[in-house]
Amino acid sequence: MVPKKRIDEILDTYDPDDITIATLCSHSSLQIFHGARKMGFKTLGLTIKHDTKYYDAFPLAKPDEIIKYKDFEDMEARVDELYEKNVIIIPHGSFVEYMGPKRFEDYEVPVYCNRSVLQWESNRDMERQWLTSAGINMPRIFTDAREITEPVMVKYHGAKGGMGYFIAKDYPDFKMSIDNSMPYSIQEYCLGTRYYLHFFYSPFKDDGYKLKRGGSLEMLSIDRRDESNIDEMYKLGSIEDAKRHGLYPSFVVTGNTPAVIRESLLPKAFAMAENAVERSYELFGGMWGPFCLETVVNDKLEFKVFEISTRIVAGTNPFISGSPYADLIYPGLSTGGRIAMEIRDSIKNGHLKDLMT
Ligand code: ATP
Predict the structure, then answer these.
(1) Do 131 and 162 belong to one domain?
(2) Is the pLDDT of residue 260 over 80?
(3) Whose CA is nearest to atom 3 of ligand 1?
Protein backbone atom coordinates (compact mmCIF):
# COMPACT_ATOMS: atom_id res chain seq x y z
CA MET A 1 0.00 0.00 0.00
CA VAL A 2 1.27 3.51 -0.78
CA PRO A 3 2.38 5.02 2.55
CA LYS A 4 0.07 7.81 3.70
CA LYS A 5 3.17 10.01 4.07
CA ARG A 6 3.85 9.71 0.32
CA ILE A 7 0.26 10.71 -0.54
CA ASP A 8 0.55 13.73 1.76
CA GLU A 9 3.83 14.72 0.05
CA ILE A 10 2.10 14.59 -3.34
CA LEU A 11 -0.81 16.66 -2.03
CA ASP A 12 1.66 19.25 -0.68
CA THR A 13 2.72 19.93 -4.27
CA TYR A 14 -0.89 20.46 -5.45
CA ASP A 15 -2.52 23.81 -6.10
CA PRO A 16 -5.77 23.54 -4.08
CA ASP A 17 -7.47 26.02 -6.41
CA ASP A 18 -6.74 23.90 -9.46
CA ILE A 19 -7.71 20.33 -8.53
CA THR A 20 -8.72 17.87 -11.25
CA ILE A 21 -11.10 15.00 -10.49
CA ALA A 22 -10.29 11.83 -12.40
CA THR A 23 -11.68 8.34 -12.71
CA LEU A 24 -11.65 5.35 -15.02
CA CYS A 25 -14.06 5.74 -17.96
CA SER A 26 -16.67 3.18 -16.98
CA HIS A 27 -19.24 2.22 -14.29
CA SER A 28 -20.42 5.55 -12.79
CA SER A 29 -17.95 7.87 -14.53
CA LEU A 30 -20.67 9.93 -16.27
CA GLN A 31 -22.16 10.69 -12.88
CA ILE A 32 -18.77 11.39 -11.25
CA PHE A 33 -17.72 13.83 -14.01
CA HIS A 34 -21.14 15.49 -14.09
CA GLY A 35 -21.02 16.00 -10.31
CA ALA A 36 -17.42 17.25 -10.36
CA ARG A 37 -18.22 19.76 -13.12
CA LYS A 38 -21.22 21.01 -11.14
CA MET A 39 -18.90 21.78 -8.22
CA GLY A 40 -16.47 23.62 -10.48
CA PHE A 41 -13.69 21.01 -10.82
CA LYS A 42 -11.74 20.14 -13.93
CA THR A 43 -12.29 16.52 -14.98
CA LEU A 44 -10.08 13.85 -16.48
CA GLY A 45 -11.07 10.45 -17.86
CA LEU A 46 -8.57 7.58 -17.68
CA THR A 47 -8.99 4.75 -20.14
CA ILE A 48 -7.22 1.60 -21.16
CA LYS A 49 -9.27 0.07 -23.94
CA HIS A 50 -12.66 1.55 -23.25
CA ASP A 51 -14.55 3.16 -26.07
CA THR A 52 -15.09 6.79 -25.01
CA LYS A 53 -17.12 8.04 -27.98
CA TYR A 54 -20.30 7.65 -25.93
CA TYR A 55 -19.22 10.69 -23.87
CA ASP A 56 -19.91 12.86 -26.95
CA ALA A 57 -23.56 11.92 -26.52
CA PHE A 58 -23.62 13.39 -23.00
CA PRO A 59 -21.93 16.81 -23.13
CA LEU A 60 -22.70 17.72 -19.49
CA ALA A 61 -20.89 14.61 -18.29
CA LYS A 62 -18.00 14.52 -20.73
CA PRO A 63 -14.61 14.92 -19.04
CA ASP A 64 -12.51 17.93 -20.03
CA GLU A 65 -9.71 15.61 -21.07
CA ILE A 66 -9.13 11.90 -21.61
CA ILE A 67 -5.84 10.02 -21.30
CA LYS A 68 -5.64 6.70 -23.11
CA TYR A 69 -3.13 4.23 -21.64
CA LYS A 70 -1.74 1.10 -23.28
CA ASP A 71 -2.41 -0.95 -20.15
CA PHE A 72 -2.39 -0.62 -16.35
CA GLU A 73 1.45 -0.75 -16.28
CA ASP A 74 1.48 2.31 -18.53
CA MET A 75 -1.03 4.00 -16.23
CA GLU A 76 1.12 3.28 -13.17
CA ALA A 77 4.28 4.49 -14.91
CA ARG A 78 2.80 7.82 -16.01
CA VAL A 79 1.68 9.21 -12.64
CA ASP A 80 3.81 12.36 -13.08
CA GLU A 81 1.33 13.63 -15.70
CA LEU A 82 -1.40 13.34 -13.07
CA TYR A 83 0.64 15.19 -10.43
CA GLU A 84 1.04 18.09 -12.87
CA LYS A 85 -2.73 18.29 -13.16
CA ASN A 86 -3.28 18.07 -9.36
CA VAL A 87 -5.31 14.89 -9.83
CA ILE A 88 -7.48 13.26 -7.21
CA ILE A 89 -8.84 9.83 -8.12
CA ILE A 90 -12.42 8.82 -7.37
CA PRO A 91 -12.51 5.03 -7.14
CA HIS A 92 -15.51 3.05 -8.37
CA GLY A 93 -16.30 -0.66 -8.48
CA SER A 94 -14.93 -1.29 -11.96
CA PHE A 95 -11.78 0.77 -11.32
CA VAL A 96 -10.77 -1.44 -8.40
CA GLU A 97 -11.95 -4.65 -10.07
CA TYR A 98 -10.21 -4.09 -13.44
CA MET A 99 -6.99 -2.85 -11.88
CA GLY A 100 -7.11 -5.43 -9.07
CA PRO A 101 -7.32 -4.44 -5.37
CA LYS A 102 -3.62 -5.11 -4.71
CA ARG A 103 -2.50 -2.94 -7.59
CA PHE A 104 -4.98 -0.25 -6.69
CA GLU A 105 -3.53 -0.16 -3.16
CA ASP A 106 -0.12 0.60 -4.68
CA TYR A 107 -1.23 3.18 -7.26
CA GLU A 108 0.73 6.28 -6.29
CA VAL A 109 -1.93 8.95 -6.79
CA PRO A 110 -4.16 10.50 -4.07
CA VAL A 111 -7.40 8.55 -3.89
CA TYR A 112 -10.62 9.61 -2.17
CA CYS A 113 -11.15 6.64 0.19
CA ASN A 114 -9.32 4.71 2.88
CA ARG A 115 -7.33 2.12 0.94
CA SER A 116 -7.14 -0.07 4.06
CA VAL A 117 -10.80 -0.92 3.51
CA LEU A 118 -9.92 -2.89 0.37
CA GLN A 119 -8.56 -5.97 2.11
CA TRP A 120 -11.57 -6.02 4.44
CA GLU A 121 -13.93 -5.84 1.51
CA SER A 122 -12.23 -8.14 -0.97
CA ASN A 123 -11.80 -11.01 1.49
CA ARG A 124 -15.23 -12.50 2.22
CA ASP A 125 -14.17 -13.82 5.67
CA MET A 126 -12.85 -10.42 6.75
CA GLU A 127 -15.92 -8.68 5.37
CA ARG A 128 -18.11 -11.04 7.42
CA GLN A 129 -15.99 -10.46 10.54
CA TRP A 130 -16.37 -6.68 10.11
CA LEU A 131 -20.12 -6.68 9.53
CA THR A 132 -21.19 -9.35 12.01
CA SER A 133 -19.03 -7.80 14.73
CA ALA A 134 -20.93 -4.57 13.98
CA GLY A 135 -24.14 -6.46 14.85
CA ILE A 136 -25.29 -6.74 11.22
CA ASN A 137 -27.28 -9.81 10.16
CA MET A 138 -25.73 -11.72 7.27
CA PRO A 139 -26.79 -14.90 5.43
CA ARG A 140 -25.81 -18.08 7.30
CA ILE A 141 -22.73 -19.91 5.97
CA PHE A 142 -22.61 -23.67 5.21
CA THR A 143 -19.14 -25.16 5.59
CA ASP A 144 -20.15 -28.65 4.39
CA ALA A 145 -22.19 -29.01 1.21
CA ARG A 146 -23.68 -32.26 2.55
CA GLU A 147 -25.51 -30.16 5.14
CA ILE A 148 -27.53 -28.30 2.52
CA THR A 149 -31.15 -28.82 3.57
CA GLU A 150 -32.60 -25.55 2.29
CA PRO A 151 -31.97 -23.30 -0.74
CA VAL A 152 -28.44 -21.92 -0.77
CA MET A 153 -26.47 -19.52 -2.94
CA VAL A 154 -23.08 -20.79 -4.11
CA LYS A 155 -20.59 -18.01 -4.81
CA TYR A 156 -17.21 -18.41 -6.46
CA HIS A 157 -14.55 -16.25 -4.89
CA GLY A 158 -13.63 -13.22 -6.93
CA ALA A 159 -16.36 -13.97 -9.49
CA LYS A 160 -17.64 -10.46 -9.85
CA GLY A 161 -21.12 -9.33 -10.72
CA GLY A 162 -22.66 -12.64 -9.73
CA MET A 163 -20.99 -14.44 -12.66
CA GLY A 164 -21.30 -18.23 -12.26
CA TYR A 165 -23.24 -18.08 -8.99
CA PHE A 166 -25.96 -20.68 -8.61
CA ILE A 167 -28.78 -21.73 -6.34
CA ALA A 168 -28.87 -25.28 -4.98
CA LYS A 169 -31.69 -26.79 -2.95
CA ASP A 170 -29.92 -29.92 -1.69
CA TYR A 171 -26.64 -31.80 -1.97
CA PRO A 172 -27.38 -33.58 -5.30
CA ASP A 173 -28.42 -30.24 -6.78
CA PHE A 174 -25.12 -28.74 -5.53
CA LYS A 175 -23.08 -31.63 -6.99
CA MET A 176 -24.74 -31.18 -10.35
CA SER A 177 -23.65 -27.54 -10.72
CA ILE A 178 -20.42 -27.09 -8.74
CA ASP A 179 -17.11 -26.40 -10.46
CA ASN A 180 -14.57 -27.70 -7.95
CA SER A 181 -11.62 -26.06 -9.69
CA MET A 182 -12.53 -22.68 -8.15
CA PRO A 183 -12.81 -21.75 -4.46
CA TYR A 184 -16.40 -21.03 -3.44
CA SER A 185 -18.57 -20.35 -0.42
CA ILE A 186 -22.09 -21.54 0.31
CA GLN A 187 -24.58 -19.29 2.02
CA GLU A 188 -28.25 -19.32 2.92
CA TYR A 189 -30.41 -18.13 0.03
CA CYS A 190 -32.25 -15.12 1.45
CA LEU A 191 -35.78 -15.03 0.14
CA GLY A 192 -37.28 -11.56 0.09
CA THR A 193 -36.90 -8.25 -1.73
CA ARG A 194 -33.49 -6.87 -2.62
CA TYR A 195 -32.57 -3.30 -1.79
CA TYR A 196 -29.16 -1.72 -2.40
CA LEU A 197 -28.90 1.13 0.09
CA HIS A 198 -26.62 4.01 -0.90
CA PHE A 199 -25.12 5.87 2.03
CA PHE A 200 -22.55 8.63 2.40
CA TYR A 201 -20.54 9.26 5.53
CA SER A 202 -18.90 12.64 6.06
CA PRO A 203 -16.49 12.71 9.03
CA PHE A 204 -16.66 16.54 9.05
CA LYS A 205 -20.32 17.41 8.65
CA ASP A 206 -21.77 18.19 12.06
CA ASP A 207 -25.51 18.27 11.48
CA GLY A 208 -28.11 15.79 10.18
CA TYR A 209 -27.89 12.14 11.36
CA LYS A 210 -24.87 12.42 13.64
CA LEU A 211 -22.71 9.47 14.66
CA LYS A 212 -21.25 8.87 18.13
CA ARG A 213 -17.74 9.30 16.78
CA GLY A 214 -18.75 12.57 15.08
CA GLY A 215 -19.58 13.27 11.47
CA SER A 216 -22.85 12.68 9.72
CA LEU A 217 -24.48 9.79 7.85
CA GLU A 218 -26.66 10.43 4.81
CA MET A 219 -28.86 8.12 2.77
CA LEU A 220 -28.68 9.35 -0.81
CA SER A 221 -30.66 6.74 -2.76
CA ILE A 222 -31.72 3.11 -3.14
CA ASP A 223 -31.73 0.90 -6.22
CA ARG A 224 -32.47 -2.64 -7.20
CA ARG A 225 -30.22 -4.36 -9.69
CA ASP A 226 -31.48 -5.93 -12.88
CA GLU A 227 -29.86 -9.33 -13.12
CA SER A 228 -29.80 -11.52 -16.20
CA ASN A 229 -31.22 -14.04 -16.54
CA ILE A 230 -32.68 -14.73 -13.06
CA ASP A 231 -35.09 -11.77 -13.19
CA GLU A 232 -36.98 -13.18 -16.17
CA MET A 233 -36.51 -16.89 -15.50
CA TYR A 234 -39.99 -17.27 -14.01
CA LYS A 235 -41.44 -16.88 -17.50
CA LEU A 236 -40.10 -20.31 -18.37
CA GLY A 237 -41.89 -22.02 -15.48
CA SER A 238 -39.90 -23.62 -12.68
CA ILE A 239 -36.11 -23.32 -12.52
CA GLU A 240 -35.96 -27.13 -12.35
CA ASP A 241 -37.81 -27.36 -15.67
CA ALA A 242 -35.49 -24.82 -17.24
CA LYS A 243 -32.42 -26.72 -16.01
CA ARG A 244 -33.68 -29.86 -17.72
CA HIS A 245 -33.47 -27.89 -20.97
CA GLY A 246 -29.94 -26.72 -20.22
CA LEU A 247 -30.98 -23.23 -19.08
CA TYR A 248 -29.37 -22.23 -15.77
CA PRO A 249 -30.11 -19.13 -13.71
CA SER A 250 -27.40 -16.47 -13.59
CA PHE A 251 -27.00 -13.19 -11.67
CA VAL A 252 -25.13 -10.97 -14.10
CA VAL A 253 -25.90 -7.29 -13.46
CA THR A 254 -27.15 -5.53 -16.58
CA GLY A 255 -28.66 -2.34 -15.15
CA ASN A 256 -30.34 -0.67 -12.18
CA THR A 257 -33.79 0.60 -11.29
CA PRO A 258 -34.72 3.17 -8.62
CA ALA A 259 -36.38 2.00 -5.42
CA VAL A 260 -37.61 3.31 -2.07
CA ILE A 261 -38.19 1.30 1.10
CA ARG A 262 -41.18 1.61 3.40
CA GLU A 263 -40.52 4.40 5.86
CA SER A 264 -40.64 2.11 8.90
CA LEU A 265 -37.52 0.32 7.59
CA LEU A 266 -35.44 3.50 7.59
CA PRO A 267 -34.40 3.36 11.29
CA LYS A 268 -33.08 -0.19 10.80
CA ALA A 269 -31.27 0.78 7.61
CA PHE A 270 -29.57 3.74 9.32
CA ALA A 271 -28.64 1.65 12.37
CA MET A 272 -26.88 -0.93 10.16
CA ALA A 273 -24.98 1.73 8.22
CA GLU A 274 -24.05 3.57 11.40
CA ASN A 275 -22.69 0.39 13.00
CA ALA A 276 -20.71 -0.50 9.87
CA VAL A 277 -19.07 2.95 9.90
CA GLU A 278 -18.34 2.97 13.65
CA ARG A 279 -16.82 -0.53 13.47
CA SER A 280 -14.69 0.40 10.45
CA TYR A 281 -12.89 3.01 12.55
CA GLU A 282 -12.20 0.46 15.29
CA LEU A 283 -10.91 -2.15 12.84
CA PHE A 284 -8.97 -0.31 10.16
CA GLY A 285 -9.10 3.45 10.50
CA GLY A 286 -12.50 4.09 8.97
CA MET A 287 -14.68 4.15 5.89
CA TRP A 288 -15.81 7.51 4.55
CA GLY A 289 -17.59 8.80 1.48
CA PRO A 290 -20.12 6.67 -0.43
CA PHE A 291 -20.84 3.04 0.40
CA CYS A 292 -23.63 0.58 -0.25
CA LEU A 293 -25.27 -2.11 1.86
CA GLU A 294 -26.61 -4.85 -0.39
CA THR A 295 -29.62 -6.30 1.40
CA VAL A 296 -32.61 -8.60 1.29
CA VAL A 297 -35.70 -7.80 3.38
CA ASN A 298 -37.86 -10.80 4.30
CA ASP A 299 -41.58 -10.90 5.06
CA LYS A 300 -40.88 -10.31 8.76
CA LEU A 301 -39.31 -6.99 7.69
CA GLU A 302 -35.82 -8.14 8.72
CA PHE A 303 -32.73 -7.11 6.77
CA LYS A 304 -29.95 -9.47 5.80
CA VAL A 305 -26.84 -7.87 4.31
CA PHE A 306 -25.08 -10.12 1.79
CA GLU A 307 -22.38 -7.64 0.80
CA ILE A 308 -20.96 -4.17 1.38
CA SER A 309 -19.46 -2.03 -1.39
CA THR A 310 -17.21 0.61 0.08
CA ARG A 311 -17.33 3.12 -2.75
CA ILE A 312 -19.77 4.57 -5.27
CA VAL A 313 -21.93 1.83 -6.79
CA ALA A 314 -23.44 1.88 -10.29
CA GLY A 315 -26.84 1.66 -8.61
CA THR A 316 -26.55 5.41 -7.94
CA ASN A 317 -26.67 6.12 -11.70
CA PRO A 318 -30.47 6.47 -11.92
CA PHE A 319 -30.14 9.48 -9.59
CA ILE A 320 -27.99 11.94 -11.55
CA SER A 321 -30.55 14.68 -10.88
CA GLY A 322 -31.39 13.70 -7.32
CA SER A 323 -33.45 11.02 -5.60
CA PRO A 324 -36.40 10.78 -3.19
CA TYR A 325 -33.80 10.78 -0.36
CA ALA A 326 -31.07 13.11 -1.65
CA ASP A 327 -33.75 15.68 -2.47
CA LEU A 328 -34.51 15.95 1.25
CA ILE A 329 -30.90 16.96 1.93
CA TYR A 330 -29.43 18.43 -1.26
CA PRO A 331 -32.14 18.83 -3.93
CA GLY A 332 -31.00 17.59 -7.32
CA LEU A 333 -27.63 16.26 -6.16
CA SER A 334 -26.22 12.86 -7.18
CA THR A 335 -23.71 10.77 -5.24
CA GLY A 336 -21.09 11.95 -7.76
CA GLY A 337 -22.04 15.53 -6.91
CA ARG A 338 -21.94 14.77 -3.19
CA ILE A 339 -18.38 13.40 -3.52
CA ALA A 340 -17.27 16.57 -5.32
CA MET A 341 -19.01 18.73 -2.70
CA GLU A 342 -17.15 16.90 0.09
CA ILE A 343 -13.82 17.43 -1.68
CA ARG A 344 -14.62 21.10 -2.36
CA ASP A 345 -15.56 21.67 1.31
CA SER A 346 -12.53 19.81 2.61
CA ILE A 347 -10.23 21.98 0.47
CA LYS A 348 -11.93 25.08 1.88
CA ASN A 349 -11.67 23.84 5.49
CA GLY A 350 -8.14 22.43 5.22
CA HIS A 351 -9.22 18.76 5.64
CA LEU A 352 -8.33 17.43 2.20
CA LYS A 353 -5.44 15.27 3.42
CA ASP A 354 -7.73 13.59 5.97
CA LEU A 355 -9.89 12.19 3.15
CA MET A 356 -7.08 11.00 0.88
CA THR A 357 -4.92 7.87 1.06
P1 ATP B 1 -20.83 -7.18 -6.80
O2 ATP B 1 -19.40 -7.19 -6.38
O3 ATP B 1 -21.08 -6.60 -8.15
O4 ATP B 1 -21.76 -6.65 -5.72
P5 ATP B 1 -20.76 -10.01 -6.39
O6 ATP B 1 -20.18 -10.82 -7.48
O7 ATP B 1 -19.97 -9.79 -5.18
O8 ATP B 1 -21.28 -8.67 -7.00
P9 ATP B 1 -23.13 -10.45 -4.87
O10 ATP B 1 -23.50 -9.01 -4.87
O11 ATP B 1 -22.68 -11.09 -3.63
O12 ATP B 1 -22.10 -10.72 -6.05
O13 ATP B 1 -24.34 -11.31 -5.44
C14 ATP B 1 -24.86 -11.17 -6.78
C15 ATP B 1 -26.37 -11.28 -6.74
O16 ATP B 1 -26.76 -12.54 -6.22
C17 ATP B 1 -27.05 -10.27 -5.81
O18 ATP B 1 -27.27 -9.04 -6.43
C19 ATP B 1 -28.34 -10.98 -5.45
O20 ATP B 1 -29.32 -10.89 -6.46
C21 ATP B 1 -27.91 -12.43 -5.38
N22 ATP B 1 -27.54 -12.84 -4.02
C23 ATP B 1 -26.31 -12.79 -3.47
N24 ATP B 1 -26.29 -13.34 -2.25
C25 ATP B 1 -27.54 -13.75 -2.00
C26 ATP B 1 -28.17 -14.44 -0.91
N27 ATP B 1 -27.47 -14.82 0.15
N28 ATP B 1 -29.49 -14.72 -1.01
C29 ATP B 1 -30.19 -14.37 -2.11
N30 ATP B 1 -29.67 -13.76 -3.19
C31 ATP B 1 -28.35 -13.44 -3.14
Answers:
(1) no
(2) yes
(3) 161
